[in-house]
Write a structure and sequence with these properties.
Chain lengths: ~160, ~200, ~675
């Protein structure tokens, strides 16, 4: 019985040590590998870091998609209703990518403030907007409304 | 000590469940309260009834309409109204359509916002199923939808006599939704309108 | 009319499930064998009615009855009949009905194949499954009735099934996945029954094992099919994306894998009892959580196709009752199950403990990575997503450790092994596997990368160790053939599943290190060389399918070493489809599959002037991933059919704390039955 208790204690210590190690690694890995989401307005106001992997999203502006004639490079604008952001992407755009539809891009802002995407995701169906994009547009709308109210109050 | 240890899984679960519940509350489909008391964004768009009849599926040809005949945000002034976002491609809109007809019959002013749709198909829809709208704003490009923050159809906004949005319902308006949420709010606004008229 | 019939059958099934949840359980408390005996007929009845309901839903789909809202939203008159059937579980309401049907099916199976179990155990197990069924029926009837009508204005035609789901993989993937998810409800019900009875012995573990193995095998196949579908249907050529939906199915699998191994220790040595119960609860809880994550929209992912928060609240309440309740029961009752026995540090038991620790750590890191965005959102740390680098950072070393310990652990003896007798076993794997790994890469003509060498060595280590163990165990005085034949199916099941893991590991290692992937711009008539193959873009033509129009490309494939005049050995026809009802675009890749490499071509988009963006991939050994997964599932099935589990009760240790009066009338009845 005593041996069993001792063994159990050892098991518990073993598990605690492993768990601590794992938690440390997890914290490290999470800090290195998470992608924060920014709205085009936030980027316009220089809130987003440069050369760090982030995600942005919004509605693709009509007639903004341009393709290179000799490679798979393309560029397009996304908007949250108040600011727009130019996105560069080299690769094949997803099936559901379309102008005036929501898209979310993962990539980084370069030194010139151009967003270079590594991955572009398009929204999934007609009646559904990615929550981040919906949220971004909501923020932009609220801000506009506030600006309107304060300008009215000034009169 | 041994007994307490056995509760650890339960405690972890309770914390997780609380997080998940909170996550549900933060779902974008739930009504963001920030939208309340926001004036109707400015717009200038044609009225569906005033456009010449088109065929379903046909590309809508550009029609010149006098600026004076265009609908603007002033449409909402003076009366409490519902703004209903709909489209013929939206299956759920068909579900709520009969309820809208019922509601319109009780004297509620409903304005339609035909969202990213074809004029011909929209006109046929209203002829076929009945027209609950006093006016239907045509928003083919979805520009007004963007200003309003439309996530998809159907959506219904409650707008007061000053053109201020008071409430937004995402999804189908049916008997239950109307009775439990929209109608009480609607009646409050009507009462407020009556009061302000009386004061003057 | 048929829809109303289905609705009515569903309500009747709910009533029967209520009775099934209450009467047998009341019987175990009041010691009334007659009440307990109602469990079997009630679960049969429940199955019959939910099956009728399901058949009604299939019928309205086949009849194109668009007055039913669910049909109008998910079908179309142009849809081929087999997709009409699979559209039944293409969205939320129908997939819930499928859940309920499968749950009733498992319940019926337990009722039929439990003749050797004491009646009170059967009563408790079936009652717990009845409770779960009640939750699901209520959920369906209150929030997501698949039979709701669109009257008086039904649409002329349906909205069509999501084109992504119009595929053979998606016809069979959800049912199999659900077979796995729901199958864990059996292990869960056994665990709750043990806690209620305050009794858990090796007989309990022996009853639970085949059910757990079966459910786990289904889940394995389900996950494998999902991965295969993502590979050829999403058009990105990846086979695992660490997407929340995928993680949602991986987590119960990891818990289930840990459970299978912990059950072995509980059965043979009476060890880790509370832990086994906790894992059984965990596996099913994660299955429910998987449903919750996918269905509620809490975590929105690339392919979560149903989102509705009001339903989410119901599921969360349901989860709270099921998981919270069972964990509370666990906290209150599991200490009554008896003291933990001791074990030796070099023994099979220790190996199984290590396996469990590694699997649970892996599970925890997947769970954390999946829920972290949600936690960050709740705590206001911003909108965050956790990408594949995080998961790979953990999964690769943990997987490696698992594979290495698996080889050694399975060769250990129960109770105690002396280091002196174990060291010689290490020799062959330690020497042979690295040499084979280097040879393999050299023969294939690939660079010797450190990561691929480590991966291959670990996989080969597992293979050599396993085969060595088979060789040792099959030694017999009457010859090796007889020795082999004497080995038990449960042992063969383990061997095949472990070899499957090795095959899977080889597939993952080689395909992730030596794939050649090109996204290029091609004009018709142009040729491109990828990894020893030439692809000639011949033409693009318009073709028509039943409910879509497609641009179909033609790519002649050559082996590069052949001259320019050589004949192509195959032609690939990838398509870009436009579905008529929704206008949605879909990429259909075309793949020339083989045991040693896949040639994968997908059309991107037209770029004007006859040019297209094209994905051309050469993926070596990618089929080994799915071959391995099939072997793992096969191993589970073979172990589950071991006759040992179906023998009448032997050596049932009477539990120290169980109330003898509770068991005795049941035993009497069970004896009468047999």
């Amino acid at each position: 019985m005593k041996a069993a208790r001792k063994q159990r204690l050892l098991v518990v210590i073993f598990i605690v040590v492993i768990a601590t190690l794992i938690v440390g690694l997890l914290t490290y890995a999470l800090r290195e590998n998470i992608n924060l989401f920014y709205t085009p307005s936030q980027i316009a106001e220089e809130e987003a870091p440069r050369n760090t992997q982030i995600r942005v999203g919004g509605m693709v502006v009509v007639d903004s998609l341009q393709r290179a004639s000799d490679s798979l490079d393309s560029s397009f604008l996304v908007t949250d209703g108040s600011a727009t952001l130019l996105i560069h992407y080299s690769g094949i755009l997803p099936d559901l990518f379309a102008e005036d539809e929501a898209a979310v891009a993962t990539g980084a802002l370069d030194d010139d403030g151009v967003f270079v995407a590594q991955q572009v995701l398009a929204k999934h169906d007609e009646e559904y907007t990615p929550p981040e994009v919906a949220d971004a547009m909501q923020q932009a709308i609220d801000k506009k409304a506030k600006a309107l109210q304060s300008s009215e109050a000034a009169y | 000590m041994d007994r307490i240890k056995l509760f650890i899984p339960l405690i972890i679960f309770v914390v997780l469940a609380a997080m998940l519940y909170w996550g549900l509350g933060r779902d974008p489909n739930a009504m963001p309260s920030a939208l309340i008391s926001r004036p109707m964004p400015a717009f200038q768009l044609p009225d569906l009834q005033q456009l010449p009849a088109g065929e379903a599926g046909e590309e809508s040809t550009p029609v010149v309409i006098a600026e004076a005949d265009m609908l603007t945000e002033k449409l909402f002034l003076g009366e409490v109204s519902l703004l209903n976002v709909w489209a013929t491609w939206c299956v759920s809109c068909r579900v709520e359509h009969p309820y809208l007809l019922d509601i319109a019959e009780t004297g509620v002013r409903i304005i339609g916002l035909n969202y990213k749709d074809e004029v011909g198909a929209a006109q046929q829809w209203l002829t076929k199923f009945g027209d609950p709208y006093t006016h239907t704003i045509v928003d083919n490009t979805g520009g007004m939808g963007l200003d309003l923050g439309v996530f998809g159809a159907p959506e219904t906004y409650l707008v007061d006599h000053l053109g201020v949005i008071h409430y937004k319902h995402i999804g189908v308006v049916d008997d239950r939704v109307w009775r439990s949420t929209l109608q009480p709010k609607y009646q409050q606004l009507v009462a407020a309108l009556a009061q302000s008229v009386n004061k003057q | 009319m048929i829809a109303e019939l289905g609705h009515f059958a569903l309500i009747l099934a709910l009533c029967l499930a209520f009775a099934q949840a209450l009467i047998p359980l009341a019987g175990t408390i009041a010691h009334k064998p007659l009440w307990m005996a109602t469990a079997r007929p009630l679960s049969t009845g429940q199955f019959v009615f939910v099956a009728i309901s399901f058949a009604c839903l299939v019928t309205v789909f086949l009849q194109d009855d668009f007055t039913v809202a669910y049909v109008a939203n998910n079908s179309n008159s142009l849809l081929p009949y087999y997709y009409k059937v699979s559209a039944v579980w293409g969205a939320h309401e129908g997939s819930l009905l499928l859940w309920a049907l499968i749950l009733a099916g498992w319940t019926l199976a337990v009722a039929i194949f439990s003749r050797t179990l004491p009646l009170d155990m059967v009563a408790r197990v079936l009652a717990v499954m009845g409770m779960i069924a009640v939750g699901f029926y209520l959920f369906m009837l209150l929030t997501s009735n698949p039979f709701e009508r669109l009257l008086p204005f039904p649409p002329v035609d349906g909205k069509d099934l999501n084109p992504l789901l119009q595929d053979i993989g998606l016809i069979i993937h959800p049912p199999l996945l659900y077979m796995g998810y729901v199958g864990f409800s059996v292990a869960f019900a056994f665990a709750i029954a043990a806690l209620l009875a305050g009794r858990m012995d090796s007989a309990w573990a022996r009853w639970t094992r085949p059910w757990t193995n079966a459910a786990w095998s289904f889940l394995t196949v389900g996950i494998f099919l999902g991965s295969w579908w993502a590979y050829y249907e999403l058009g990105w050529g990846g086979w695992w994306f660490w997407d929340p939906v995928e993680n949602a199915s991986l987590m119960p699998w990891l818990a289930g894998t840990a459970l299978i191994h912990s059950l072995a220790a509980s059965e043979k040595r009476g060890l880790f009892r509370s832990w086994t119960l906790l894992l059984a609860i965990l596996a099913f809880s994660l299955s429910l959580l998987g449903t919750f994550l996918v269905r509620s929209g809490v975590l929105t992912s690339v392919h979560a196709f149903a989102t509705d928060p009001t339903r989410g609240v119901f599921i969360l309440a349901f989860l709270g009752v099921v998981i919270g309740g069972s964990l509370l029961l666990f906290a209150l009752r599991s200490s009554t199950l008896g003291a933990t026995a001791s074990f030796n540090w070099l023994s099979r038991e220790a190996g199984l403990l290590l396996n469990n620790v590694l699997l649970v750590v892996t599970l925890a890191m997947v769970l954390l990575g999946t829920l972290y965005p949600l936690v960050a959102d709740v705590l206001g740390w911003g909108k965050i997503s956790v990408g594949p680098p995080y998961f790979n950072f953990f999964f690769v070393p943990l997987g490696l450790l698992l594979v290495l310990s698996m080889g050694a652990g399975a060769s250990l003896q129960w109770k105690r092994q002396t280091p002196g007798s174990f060291m010689p076993l290490l020799k062959a794997p330690a020497f042979i596997s690295p040499i084979l790994a280097v040879l393999w890469l050299l023969l294939a003509g690939w660079d010797l990368k450190v990561v691929s060498l480590i991966g291959l060595t670990a996989a080969l280590w597992l293979i050599v160790f396993t085969l060595q163990d088979v060789w040792k165990k099959s030694a017999h005085s009457a010859g090796r053939g007889i020795g082999m034949a004497r080995l038990k199916p449960s042992y063969w099941g383990m061997v095949i599943a472990h070899l499957g893991i090795a095959v899977l590991a080889i597939g993952i290692t080689l395909t992730s290190n030596y794939s050649d992937q090109r996204d290029v711009r091609l004009v018709t008539g142009e040729r491109i060389q990828v990894a020893g193959y030439g692809f000639l873009f011949e033409s693009v033509e318009q073709v028509r399918g039943p409910n879509y129009i497609a641009q179909q490309g033609s790519f002649a494939v050559f082996v590069s070493d052949d001259g320019v005049d050589a004949k192509p050995f195959t032609t690939l026809h990838p398509e870009k489809r436009r579905y008529l009802a929704t206008g949605n675009m879909m990429t259909e890749a075309d793949i020339d599959g083989g045991l040693f490499r896949d040639l994968y071509v997908a059309l991107g988009e037209p770029l004007g002037d006859g040019a297209w963006s094209v994905r051309v991939y050469v993926k070596p050994y990618i089929r080994w991933i799915w071959l391995g997964a099939m072997m793992i599932a096969l191993g589970g099935v073979i172990a589950a059919i071991d006759k040992r589990y179906r023998k009448a009760r032997v050596n049932v240790q009477q539990p120290a704390v169980a109330a003898p009066s509770a068991a005795s009338p049941a035993l009497a009845l069970a004896k009468k039955e047999s």
